[in-house]
């Protein structure tokens, strides 16, 4: 009989290095999550939350011990918790990300509305290993927009001063010689381009039109939230009303987010054109502003003589329509027009889609009608307008879409005409 010992050896160096790399990656991710202003957390594949960032504890006024297990439920509105749990369990079962808006209680006992986004982290086989979630305070978002708008107003004032100084210098040069006139005109065009590029860089994700486009959605979102409490107090709070309110709120929030993306990418050359129906784009735009018009008792009439299909940039086209409609609403409200109304007419002429937007606000004064498309020209003052909206609308239609945007006064008011 032969005896012996068989010894097996396995080099696990690579495995140890890989495990250490994973741990280092997690440490970096957690450090990053601790530095952001949002509430953030991690959960394992079964949905059991294993880590919260510092901002979570600061806002909720809790400790890690209090958050163990399913402790996070303690900061949720009890009335909203069943719905949250249902969505969370459904996402765990499907492995799909989801967005949801619900209130969370702060350390001061006050519930604030949060937009929550939960993302699965999967392995190479497609199995969920962890979940990463963030909670964004909608009220803080509104505050940041207000602060950025205030900063923007200061920047616009400074730009106005710079432009006035340059105009004086250019006028002096124009009086000297014909050669100086031609050189100065060329310089003005280059300077205008630099000013616009500088403005875009300075404004970043909060460029001028965001102030215009976010103000009303934020107001509408506020009204929707207030209606929830009102209907609850009146014992008229139904699942159908809640679903409608949530869907409307999410639509507004998604529109606001899309506005940032659309105008952040405004000058990028890789934008893709697509086919879209003009009527669909108009209707989707009206759905975002109809409440604000109703609250001001402003009627909107949509006249469809023909519907056209445009091969161009749908979001930018909708942005132009939204800007013109918001301007019409503001002037109708400011002038206190009796029976205020806006009429949108869709038609087609010579193979081009034609959209006219008219109001009965009395028209634009003749002394300024030729200036309304100029950059930074506004009659509202820096706290209410930037003077960028109509300038960028004309740029979008004429330079990006190869169309035209014009305005004229009618017997009742102003009429904007878009041809694409």
Verbal overview:
The protein is of the alpha+beta class and 420 residues long. Among the domains are: 22-137, 2-Layer Sandwich (Beta-Lactamase), CATH 3.30.450.20; 270-419, Heat Shock Protein 90 (2-Layer Sandwich). 50% of the residues lie in helices and 20% in strands. It is built from 10 helices and 12 strands. It has helices at 13-35, 54-60, 81-94, 138-174, 178-203, 208-233, 239-264, 278-295, 314-335, 389-400; strands at 39-44, 49-52, 98-105, 111-122, 128-137, 274-277, 299-304, 309-312, 341-349, 352-359, 404-409, 414-419. Strands 2-1-5-4-3 form a 5-stranded antiparallel sheet. A 5-stranded mixed sheet has the order 7-9-10-12-11. The chain has a two-stranded antiparallel sheet with strand order 6-8.
If you compute it from the alpha carbons, what radius of gyration comes out, rounded to the nearest whole angstrom? Answer: 28 Å
Looking at this structure, what is the CATH superfamily of the domain at 270-419? Answer: Histidine kinase-like ATPase, C-terminal domain
Order of helices and strands: HEEHHEEEHHHHEHEEHEEHEE
Spatial gap, N to C terminus: 96 Å
Question: What is the CATH class of the domain at 270-419?
Answer: Alpha Beta
Quote the beta fraction. Answer: 15-25%
Determine the CATH topology of the domain at 270-419: Heat Shock Protein 90
Count of alpha and pi helical runs: 10
Q: What is the 3D form?
A: globular
Query: Which strands sit side by side, in order, in the main sheet?
Result: 2-1-5-4-3
Low-confidence stretches: 201-206, 266-270
Give the strand tally.
12
Helix content: 40-55%
């Amino acid at each position: 009989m032969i005896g012996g010992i068989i010894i097996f050896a396995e080099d696990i160096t690579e495995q140890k290095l890989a495990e250490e790399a994973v741990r280092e990656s997690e440490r970096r991710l957690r450090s990053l999550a601790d530095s952001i202003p949002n509430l953030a957390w991690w959960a394992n594949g079964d949905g059991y939350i294993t880590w919260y960032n510092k901002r979570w504890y600061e806002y909720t006024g809790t400790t890690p011990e209090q958050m163990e297990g399913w402790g996070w439920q303690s900061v949720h509105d009890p009335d909203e918790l069943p719905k949250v749990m249902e969505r969370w369990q459904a996402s765990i079962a499907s492995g799909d990300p989801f967005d949801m808006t619900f209130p969370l209680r702060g350390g001061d006992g006050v519930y604030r509305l949060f937009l929550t986004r939960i993302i699965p982290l999967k392995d190479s086989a497609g199995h969920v290993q962890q979940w990463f979630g963030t909670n964004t305070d909608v009220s803080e978002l509104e505050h940041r927009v207000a602060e950025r708008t205030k900063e923007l107003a200061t920047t616009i004032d400074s730009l106005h001063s710079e432009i006035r100084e340059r105009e004086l210098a250019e006028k002096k040069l124009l009086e000297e010689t014909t050669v100086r006139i031609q050189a100065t005109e060329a310089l003005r065009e280059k300077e205008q381009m630099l000013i616009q590029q500088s403005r875009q860089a300075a404004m970043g994700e909060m460029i001028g039109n965001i102030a215009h486009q976010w103000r009303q959605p934020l107001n509408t979102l506020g009204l929707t939230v207030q209606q929830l409490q009102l209907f609850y107090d009146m014992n008229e709070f139904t699942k159908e009303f809640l679903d409608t309110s949530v869907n409307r709120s999410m639509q507004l929030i998604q529109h606001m987010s899309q506005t940032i993306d659309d105008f952040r990418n405004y000058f990028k050359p890789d934008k893709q054109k697509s086919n879209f129906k003009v009527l669909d784009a108009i209707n989707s735009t009206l759905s975002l502003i109809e409440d604000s018009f109703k609250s001001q008792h402003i009627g909107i009439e949509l006249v469809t003589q023909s519907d056209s299909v445009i091969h161009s940039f749908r979001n930018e086209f909708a942005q132009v329509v939204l800007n013109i409609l918001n301007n019409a609403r503001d002037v109708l409200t400011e002038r206190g027009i009796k029976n205020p109304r806006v009429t949108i007419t869709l038609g087609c002429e010579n193979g081009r889609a034609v959209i006219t937007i008219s109001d009965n606000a009395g028209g634009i004064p003749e002394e300024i009608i030729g200036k309304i498309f100029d950059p930074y020209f506004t009659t509202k003052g820096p706290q209410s307008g930037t003077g960028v909206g109509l300038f960028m609308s004309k740029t979008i239609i004429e330079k990006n879409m190869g169309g035209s945007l014009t305005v004229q006064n009618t017997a009742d008011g102003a009429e904007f005409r878009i041809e694409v």
